[in-house]
Design brief:
- The complex is a heterodimer of chains A (219) and B (337).
- Chain A contains ten helices and no strands.
- Chain A is mostly helical.
- In chain A, helix 8 runs antiparallel to helix 10.
- With 337 residues, chain B is an alpha/beta fold.
- Chain B folds into two domains: 4-243, 3-Layer(aba) Sandwich (Rossmann fold); 249-335, Alpha-Beta Plaits.
- Chain B has eleven helices and 14 strands.
- A six-stranded mixed β-sheet of chain B has the order 6-7-8-3-9-10, sandwiched between helices. In chain B, strands 2-1-4-5 form a four-stranded antiparallel β-sheet, covered by helices on one side.
- In chain B, a hairpin with a 2-residue loop joins strand 4 and strand 5.
- The two termini of chain B are 43 Å apart.
- Mean pLDDT of chain B is 88; it is low at 252-257.
- Classes of the chains: A mainly alpha (219), B alpha/beta (337).
- Chains A and B meet through helix 6 and helix 7 of A and helix 2, strand 6 and helix 3 of B.
Chain lengths: 219, 337
C-alpha cells in the first residue's frame, strides 16, 4: 500500500487541496470583504445609510448562501468552463468555491465589524475622519482579531467544500477519499485522506487563533 | 471683551420614530464666548448629549443655526465640515479610545487623519503625553490603563489638532470622585494655559460648580436658565435649576416650620470655620441640617443648611455675618409650598 505512487498521489492531493483552499479563500475575500463592509456602512445605523444598497446586498447574500454548494457547482459549470476552460480539476473547482464562499465571508466580515464600539467610530467622526478613513483605520483595524478568526473559519469551511467537490472531479484529498472510499470500497485510503484533511484544518485553525490572539491588544 | 466662538440660535432637533415625533431639542439659544468653561447640565433624557452632538454636527439639527467661529456649520460641505471638526476636540463618557492602538498611537490618530507626517505626529504626542502627565504610558494599550488614565489619553488625543473648543460629553461620569477631581483640574489647567474654550455636559452640579464659569440648565428639551455659575448656584430661579442645586435634589421640606439659612460656598472664601465662628460671634446655637462642602485648593466649595434661632434680630445678624464673609446666604423655609 505504501508504494511510491500512493505516496506521491497523497502528496499531490495535499498540494491540490491547499491550492484550492488558499486561492479560493483569497478570491472569496476579494468579493466578500467589500460586500461585508458595505453591509455595515449602508445599514440604517451605519456611517452612510443607504437602504436600497443595503437591501440589495442583503438579498443577494441570503440567496446565494442558501444554494447548497454541490448544486451551485453543477449549476455554474458553463461559467466555470468560460473562466478556466474546463469544469474538471482543482483550478476549475476554485470558481464555484469562490462564489459560494464570498457571501458567507461577507456575513463574517459584517459581524466582525459590527463588534467595533460605535463610540469609537463616533470619536473618529468627531475628529474629522472621512468615510474611507473610518473603514480602513477604525473598522478594519479595530476588528482585526475578529476578522482573523473569521478568516480561519472561512478557510476551514472552504477546505470542507473543496472535499465535497471531489464528487464531481474536483481534485485534491476529497477526490482521493471519494474515489477510494465510495467507488472502490477501500476504507484504508479514504481514512488516510480524511485524517490528512483533519490535520490541515487543525493547522489552519490553530494558526488563525494564534495570530488573532497575538494581534488583540484588548487584554 | 472676548468674542463669541459658538453661537447657537433657535436650534431644534426632532427624531422621527415609527409612530411619533420626538423633540429632543427645541428653540435652543446659547452664546459661548472664547475662553469660557461652559457647563450644560440637565437630568438624563433632557437632551444635553444631543445638544453637544449638534455643536459638531454628529447629529444634524432639524432647525436653527450653529455658528462656529463665525461660520454656519450647517452650510458646510462634508469636506469643510471635517476640517471644521478638527478645530473641535471631543471627549466622551466611555473614553472611546482605539483599543488596538497604544496611547501614543491614539494621540497620533487625529493627526494621521489630518495628514500630518509620522515624525511630527510623534513629536506632538510626546508633548501632549507630558501635558496630561502620562509620559511613561506612551507604549501602553488602553486595556492596561485605569479609567482616569484613559480619559487623560482621550483629552490628549482631542487636543492633538490644537482645537479651539473642547467638547466634553459626561467626561467624568464613569470616574470615581477623586479621579473626577483630577480630570476637572486638568481641564481647568488646559483652559487657562492653552486658552481653549471648554463645553461640559454633565448631570452633576458638583462638576459645574467646580470649574465652570457659565452654565445653561436644560430641562425637557429647552433651556430653562442660563447665567454665571455663582448666580445660578446661589439664586436658582426656575424649578429645574432648584432641583439640581438643592441638596439631594429636594427642597428642604422636613423643617418647614423653622427658619433655615442656606449658605453657599463658591470658592470666594478661604476654608475657615464660618459656622463655628458665627455661633461664637452671635452667641446662639444653630442646628446644621445639611452640609456638603469640600476643600479645593484651600477654598471652600459646596453648601450648608442651618436652622436659625427663632429670634428675628439674631437670625438677621447671622445672615449679615455670613454675607460679610463673602458667602451668599438665603432663607429657604419660604420655598416650601
Amino acid at each position: 500500500m505504501w508504494d511510491e505512487a500512493t505516496l506521491s498521489m497523497l502528496l499531490w492531493g495535499i498540494v491540490e487541496t491547499l491550492y484550492m483552499t488558499i486561492v479560493s479563500t483569497l478570491c472569496a475575500y476579494i468579493i466578500g470583504l467589500p460586500i461585508g463592509i458595505l453591509l455595515v456602512t449602508s445599514a440604517k445605523d451605519g456611517i452612510r445609510p443607504c437602504n436600497p444598497l443595503f437591501k440589495t446586498l442583503d438579498v443577494i447574500v441570503n440567496l446565494t448562501r442558501s444554494i447548497p454548494f454541490i448544486i451551485l457547482m453543477i449549476a455554474i459549470i458553463p461559467l466555470t468552463r468560460f473562466v478556466v476552460g474546463t469544469s474538471l480539476g482543482s483550478t476549475a473547482t476554485i470558481v464555484p468555491l469562490t462564489l459560494s464562499a464570498a457571501p458567507f465571508i461577507a456575513r463574517l466580515v459584517e459581524s466582525s465589524i459590527k463588534e467595533v464600539d460605535v463610540g469609537v467610530i463616533e470619536a473618529a467622526q468627531s475628529m474629522g475622519a472621512s468615510y474611507m478613513q473610518i473603514i480602513w483605520k477604525v473598522m478594519l483595524l479595530e476588528a482585526r482579531s475578529s476578522l482573523i478568526v473569521g478568516c480561519a473559519i472561512a478557510t476551514t469551511t472552504i477546505l470542507g467544500y473543496s472535499a465535497m467537490a471531489g464528487i464531481a472531479g474536483g481534485g485534491g484529498l476529497g477526490t482521493i477519499a471519494i474515489n477510494y472510499g465510495l467507488y472502490r470500497w477501500e476504507g484504508g485510503m479514504m481514512f488516510i485522506a480524511v485524517v490528512l484533511m483533519v490535520l490541515i484544518v487543525q493547522v489552519f485553525q490553530g494558526i488563525g487563533m494564534k495570530i488573532a490572539g497575538l494581534s488583540d491588544k484588548r487584554k | 471683551m472676548s468674542k463669541t466662538i459658538i453661537q447657537i440660535s433657535s436650534l431644534s432637533k426632532t427624531f422621527q420614530t415609527k409612530d411619533a415625533e420626538v423633540h429632543a431639542l427645541s428653540d435652543i439659544n446659547l452664546s459661548i464666548e472664547e475662553g469660557d468653561i461652559y457647563g450644560i447640565i440637565g437630568m438624563s433624557g433632557a437632551g444635553k448629549s444631543t445638544l453637544v452632538r449638534c455643536i459638531n454636527m454628529l447629529e444634524k439639527p432639524t432647525g436653527g443655526t450653529v455658528l462656529f467661529d463665525g461660520r454656519d456649520l450647517l452650510s458646510l460641505s462634508d469636506k469643510e465640515l471635517r476640517e471644521a471638526r478638527r478645530s473641535m476636540g471631543m471627549i466622551f463618557q466611555q473614553f472611546n479610545l482605539l483599543m488596538q492602538r497604544t496611547s501614543e498611537g491614539n494621540i497620533c490618530f487625529p493627526l494621521e487623519l489630518a495628514g500630518t507626517t509620522k515624525s511630527e505626529a510623534k513629536k506632538r504626542a510626546t508633548e501632549l503625553l507630558e501635558l496630561v502627565g502620562l509620559s511613561d504610558k506612551a507604549k501602553a494599550y488602553p486595556s492596561q490603563l485605569s479609567g482616569g488614565q484613559k480619559q487623560r489619553i482621550a483629552i490628549a488625543r482631542a487636543l492633538a489638532t490644537s482645537p479651539k473648543v473642547l467638547l466634553c460629553d459626561e467626561a467624568t461620569s464613569a470616574l470615581d470622585p477623586t479621579t473626577t477631581a483630577s480630570i476637572l483640574s486638568l481641564l481647568k489647567d488646559i483652559n487657562q494655559r492653552l486658552g481653549i474654550t471648554i463645553i461640559i455636559i454633565t448631570h452633576e452640579m458638583s462638576v459645574i460648580e467646580r470649574i465652570c464659569n457659565r452654565v445653561a440648565i436644560i430641562d425637557e428639551s429647552k433651556i430653562a436658565e442660563v447665567g454665571a455659575v455663582k448666580d445660578i448656584f446661589s439664586k436658582p430661579q426656575t424649578a429645574a435649576a432648584q432641583k439640581l442645586v438643592y441638596p439631594e435634589g429636594k427642597r428642604i421640606e422636613k423643617f418647614s416650620s423653622k427658619r433655615c439659612m442656606r449658605i453657599v460656598f463658591d470658592g470666594n472664601s478661604s476654608f475657615e470655620p464660618v459656622v463655628a465662628n458665627m455661633v461664637l460671634e452671635c452667641k446662639a446655637p444653630v442646628n446644621i441640617m445639611y452640609a456638603d462642602t469640600k476643600n479645593i485648593d484651600g477654598k471652600a466649595f459646596g453648601q450648608m443648611v442651618v436652622q436659625l434661632p427663632e429670634d428675628e434680630a439674631l437670625a438677621q445678624k447671622m445672615f449679615t455675618y455670613v454675607r460679610a464673609r463673602g458667602l451668599s446666604a438665603e432663607e429657604v423655609s419660604g420655598y416650601v409650598g
